């Protein structure tokens, strides 16, 4: 099960450019008003990758079971901490996405409205993966991971633009810390998500 989980997570991250749709200038110029869908879809579970997963993939019997169980507990730790401290990954990503869209050169002259019924086009954002991953097998440092898909649709639900981007624990632009430190207060995990959101959304904006 652990191996299948890792493969599924990797495939999700690496599905980046398969469905990319570019916003052509003719369609962009026809847009006068823009809105944002406030309903951000997120995965049912947080992603966690640490020594338990690495070991669980090669251990069998009772020990392998205990290692795999520890991995699932860390998934739940992340989700419980987020729930207890009202850390909404969808809201964090959407806030950053809105901020960067509104300062993007293509949208400086657009009017923004909170009601999609009165807009020519609407941005829809989806968080496909989020959580924390060990930097490498011998490191005590854990970094946030995030994968975000976004699309722009017309009032007729025609796809005008679509892109998926992600950042993994291998990216040195995102700071990390020991896993337990993310749970020391209400803000450490929230700030980690905010930082990685800026980086992922910036990648999306580069291809808008």
What does this protein look like?
It is a single chain. The protein has 208 residues and is an alpha/beta fold. The protein has one domain: 3-Layer(aba) Sandwich (Rossmann fold). Helix content is 39%, strand content 22%. The chain has 6 helices and 6 strands; from the N terminus they run H-H-E-E-H-H-H-E-E-E-E-H. The chain has helices spanning 2-13, 25-30, 51-56, 61-84, 89-102, 188-206; strands at 33-36, 47-49, 111-112, 121-134, 142-154, 159-167. Strands 1, 2, 3, 4, 5 and 6 form a 6-stranded mixed β-sheet that branches. Helix 5 crosses helix 6. The radius of gyration is 19 Å and the shape is elongated. Residues 1-9 and 54-69 have low confidence and may be disordered.
List descriptors.
208 residues, Rossmann fold, 6 helices, 39% helix, 22% strand, elongated, Lipoprotein
Could you outline the blueprint of secondary structure elements for this entry?
Elements: H1 2-13, H2 25-30, E1 33-36, E2 47-49, H3 51-56, H4 61-84, H5 89-102, E3 111-112, E4 121-134, E5 142-154, E6 159-167, H6 188-206
Parallel strand pairs: 1-3, 1-4, 2-4
Antiparallel strand pairs: 4-5, 5-6
Helix pairs in contact: 5-6
Organism: Nitrosospira multiformis
Protein name: Lipoprotein
Identify the CATH class. Answer: Alpha Beta
Number of strands: 6
Poorly predicted segments = 1-9, 54-69
- End-to-end Cα distance: 38 Å
- Provide the CATH architecture: 3-Layer(aba) Sandwich
**What is the molecular shape?**
elongated
Order of helices and strands: HHEEHHHEEEEH
Cα Rg = 19 Å
Biggest sheet, in brief?
Answer: 6 strands, mixed
Structural class: alpha/beta
The CATH topology name reads Rossmann fold
Overall pLDDT confidence: 85
Strand content: 15-25%
Please work out how many helical segments DSSP would assign. Answer: 6
Give the total of domains. 1
Which bin fits the share of residues in helices? 25-40%
